[in-house]
Write a structure and sequence with these properties.
Strand order of the largest sheet: 3-2-1-4-5-6
Largest sheet: 6 strands, parallel
Number of helices: 15
Radius of gyration: 24 Å
CATH class of one domain: Alpha Beta
Helix content: 25-40%
Distance between the termini: 59 Å
Structural class: alpha/beta
CATH architecture of one domain: 3-Layer(aba) Sandwich
Strand content: 5-15%
């Protein structure tokens, strides 16, 4: 199949789309594509996910069951664990995890395995698009050779592109379709196919000149955030030493209508992007004998925040009754990596819990979005922990409450009313209008 034939199939909606990885990126992608008339098949190694979707059930808090059920009912979406069916697809989109190893080096094992699965049934005329965040050059240097093993040539027999995902779970202001989509490919024909494909269900498509450029776009976006959050965290440390309220400073600075954008301090970075993506670039830069000192320093500052939060809690306990961390009962309020989602990936709360236990504290947590801590790569020993049940006077059972995630549906007034001490890393109490003498900013 030629590029023109594939474009015609996309235009008349007869093309079949396969999405590999039905996580926080892949599932909403499927909903958006199928919702605009594309026959979409989701592939995942977890058969339980496939079964849930077939029954019209979502396994994410921010994706409604009704949307899944409605999309399945159209007949344009199905989920399967049978990867041999990828040969049926015209466009294959890869949305698999790209984490870091313990040594902060890229772990492309999921991508490599997916590439091998695709290669087994790859046929002429198919387009493969990588959306997983990675370092510049991955599409051409890692994925392309795997796909070419059966004897097909990229850019000639099959088509290749990269498009960075921009999902923001829990952000109701944007959806998959309304977030502008960047896409890059190395030939004009591939760029045109990708543009036509995404334009079917994305409001605005931005085409760049190559896969490497598109890969760098994603890193630039998230490194920008990482560096500015690190600056906010460092400013917070300085402000604490000077007895200045960093939150008041940020609020006042935000009144400037130009040349300033607010970023906020916190207990550490979480999620699948900001704690990870900068290290993809620092790793790749070493190949060119370039030291990315600025980016690495930001990573060091952000990575150190859980320890600083624990120290701040210890100081606050000493100041409020002289009780140290050893033996103290501590309630962690919110353990998801960001508010209003059930996403635990890279959550700083997990590191904080481990540090507190190491100091002898007795720790429990409350999170309305995370009833049970799932299995994670770095904190396996916490898997299976259950959230305590909410009641208005819950805080009275503990020596201190540590607010790590500022979910909107938490009764902060009740926490403040019954707590002996609250250490707030998100300014949640003040935003709720209940700050007082027992609330310590961290």
């Amino acid at each position: 199949m030629t590029s023109g034939e594939l474009i015609r199939k996309l235009t008349d909606r007869s093309a079949r789309v396969g999405v590999v990885g039905l996580g926080y990126v892949g599932l909403p992608f499927c909903m958006a594509a199928a919702g605009k008339g594309l026959s979409t098949t989701g592939f995942d190694i977890d058969p339980d996910k496939c079964a849930a979707l077939a029954a019209g059930r979502s396994y994410f808090e921010h994706i409604d069951d009704a949307l899944v059920a409605q999309t399945v009912a159209t007949g344009r979406f199905e989920a399967t664990a049978d990867f041999s069916r990828m040969g049926e697809m015209d466009v294959i989109v890869i949305c698999v995890p790209t984490p870091l190893t313990r040594h902060r080096e890229p772990d492309l094992s999921y991508l490599v395995r997916t590439g091998e699965d695709i290669a087994r049934s790859l046929r002429p005329g198919q387009m493969v698009i990588l959306e997983s965040t990675t370092y510049p050059g991955t599409t051409e240097e890692v994925l392309r050779p795997i796909l070419e093993r059966p004897g097909l040539a990229a850019h000639e027999d099959f088509f290749l592109a990269f498009s960075p995902e921009r999902e923001d779970p829990g952000n109701g202001a944007f959806t998959t379709s309304t977030i502008p989509k960047v896409v890059g490919a190395d030939t004009e024909a591939e760029r045109r196919i990708a543009e036509v494909f995404y334009s079917i269900f994305i409001d605005k498509v931005v085409v760049v000149s190559s896969t490497r450029t598109a890969e760098m776009v994603k890193l630039k976006e998230n490194i920008f955030r990482s560096v500015n959050i690190a600056l906010a965290n460092e400013m917070k440390i300085v402000c604490e030493a000077m007895d200045i309220d960093i939150w008041e400073v940020i609020a006042a600075a935000s009144t400037k209508p130009f040349g300033y954008m607010p970023f906020y301090p916190g207990p550490g970075l979480g999620g699948h992007c900001i704690p990870i993506d900068p290290f993809y670039l620092t790793w790749k830069a070493r190949e060119y004998d370039i030291s990315t000192r600025f980016i690495e320093l930001a990573g060091e500052i952000n990575s150190a925040m859980p320890q600083r939060v624990v120290e701040r809690l210890a100081q606050a306990l000493d100041a409020h009754g002289g009780k140290g961390l050893n033996g103290a009962k501590v309630l962690i309020a919110g353990i998801a990596y960001k508010k209003n989602v059930d996403d635990m990936r890279e959550s700083p709360a997990l590191k904080i819990i481990e540090l507190l236990e190491r100091r002898g504290a007795r720790v429990a947590y409350f999170d309305p979005f995370v009833p049970v801590i799932p299995q994670t790569r770095e904190h396996a020993e916490l898997a299976g922990w259950k959230s305590v049940a909410w009641r208005a006077d819950l805080a009275a059972d503990y020596d201190a409450v540590l607010i790590v995630t500022d979910h909107d549906n938490v009764d902060y007034a009740a926490l403040v009313a019954h707590a002996l001490l609250i250490v707030d890393t998100r300014n949640a109490c003040r935003k709720a209008g209940v700050a007082g003498g027992k609330v310590v900013q961290a």
